[in-house]
Specification:
alpha/beta; 5-stranded parallel β-sheet
């Protein structure tokens, strides 16, 4: 799990990981949940299985298949809504079937915005991947007001957690130069790194504003 504040670079690393898995012919089940969809049941699960459902659902046991089809809005419910454990088991069966053919990567960017049913299904499956050829790459916005901690990530002994910190002056310089070339003197670059606290997204936005403005404010004024 890649953890850190907004703009620190989690998504960039996540995208690189997804691209690397695709180059190695992994089955990649990816989704990017957003805050506005946290109240929609199984929205993220539908995104994860969107490209593989047709080929994998016929391969899992009937009760599991029917439960998952209802959760994915592919079938009308008959009687009571399907049990969450049955849906979770069905998702795990899909992962195991895919893993029997090629390695699997479950990739979720901004896991804190998962709708609750999808989050519980994902937790159930990841805890049971064991030695199968399947793993997960998650990003998590941490230590911010209004963001609910994902406690099972911290408690899962098999989950490696990497907290991303601020970038160095040299790294910020490289990012800005790749976008606009050498348009900033070193004193301006130092100020940008200080003001952004090494956050690459904030540094880019500050530099964009300075570029559009065409001049630096006096040292006594904030950027």
């Amino acid at each position: 799990a890649l953890m850190g504040e907004a703009g620190i670079g989690k998504t960039t690393l996540w995208q690189a990981g997804v691209a690397a898995a695709e180059r190695r012919s992994y089955h990649v089940l990816a989704c990017k949940p957003v805050q506005s969809e946290t109240k929609l049941s199984y929205a993220a699960l539908s995104d994860l299985l969107d490209e593989v459902a047709d080929g994998t659902l016929p391969q899992i046991p009937g009760p599991q298949r029917r439960a998952l089809e209802v959760a994915l809005l592919r079938s009308e419910p008959k009687g009571r809504p399907p049990d969450l454990r049955l849906i979770s088991t069905a998702f795990l069966s899909v992962i195991r079937f895919l893993a029997s053919k090629a390695p699997v990567l479950i990739a979720v960017d901004d896991v804190q915005w998962l709708d609750r049913p999808s989050a519980r299904v994902l937790e159930f499956a990841i805890r049971r991947l064991g030695r199968s050829r399947a793993g997960a790459l998650l990003t998590l916005r941490s230590e911010e007001p209004g963001v609910t901690p994902i406690t099972w990530i911290d408690s899962h002994s098999g989950m490696s957690r990497v907290k991303l910190g601020p970038l160095s002056l040299g790294a910020i310089h490289q990012i800005l130069s790749s976008q606009w070339g050498e348009f900033l003197p070193r004193p301006a670059l130092v100020r940008i790194v200080d003001e952004s606290r090494g956050n690459p997204f904030f540094a880019i936005e500050i530099a964009r504003g300075l570029r559009e403005q065409g001049s630096l404010p006096p040292l006594s004024e904030p950027l």
